[in-house]
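Q: My labmate handed me this sequence with no annotations at all. I'd like to see what the chain might look like in three dimensions before we decide whether it's worth expressing. Could you predict it?
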Amino acid sequence: MGNYRAKVKHLGLPELQVNTLKRKSAADSTPAKNVKKAKKSEVNYLPPPPQGESLESLEQVRVELLYEFKKRDNDSVINDKMATTFSLRRTDVILNKPPVIDFRARWPALFALSQVEEEFRRITLKPLQSTFLGKLDQYTPQLLSLFRRKGGAVGRKLDETLDMLNKDNSIESRREAVVRGLILYLGEKPEGFIKVYQIFDNDDAAAFQEAISTMVLNIFMVSKAKDEGLDNQIGIAIEGEEVLFGISDVAHACAFLIGLTYALELSYPKKLKYTFEVFQKIFLELEDVNLKMSSKVHDLKVMLHA
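A: Here is what I predict for the chain of 306 residues:
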């Protein structure tokens, strides 16, 4: 197997070349340090350029994409060029690890809702929204039953969370209640993940923008006085930048956020590690055989399949 990997490496497979000592910095020049490899069941982690293309030719396509993205009703052309430049984008994000604001300037098309979905499919070969929401809906009855049986302080908080279903039992509210309840059930804090803001005047708007700058990996919900009675406006902020906005509901936002963690090669936040593990390994069924499932998530999976 070692000889096979060596031969494939010499043929130019990026996933093997990236970890050679020649490619590492002087500070990381040991075989086991800062190894770049698939950690969340990525099928296409660092793919080679398409046949007949090089990183230089793909850079030209990337520049063309910047102009195509400014045109209206151009989704087909954008999707083709995004698919073509996939290997260049993965090289950018894995090797260079740019800040989100810089990566967005280079690849603005990636931060469209449709392209988050497509990029996730390119990386994992799975549809994002239909898989995530389908499993969330499938497990909703079992999860609600678990929440209602929970006792103690967590049980009281879960009861308060589920009270929202007495006012609105729509599929969107039901999904949001389950997501919030899941976070509580796993011993984590939904208020640290899903931020809610009301904007009534310019001072509120300024405070909201300041709050965005402190967010690392969050979903935010905004309601405005003039829009009273309308649905909240939902978005995603990463590294102090608003990266997506206009998402229909919290469950879709969770799916898109998972998609962005794959597209941008982001680590899960430590304070929500169990929630994101459930999103990945139970709702999206992307379980890495090389990484052991945590006992808390494993126990939840067993109860859901009981």
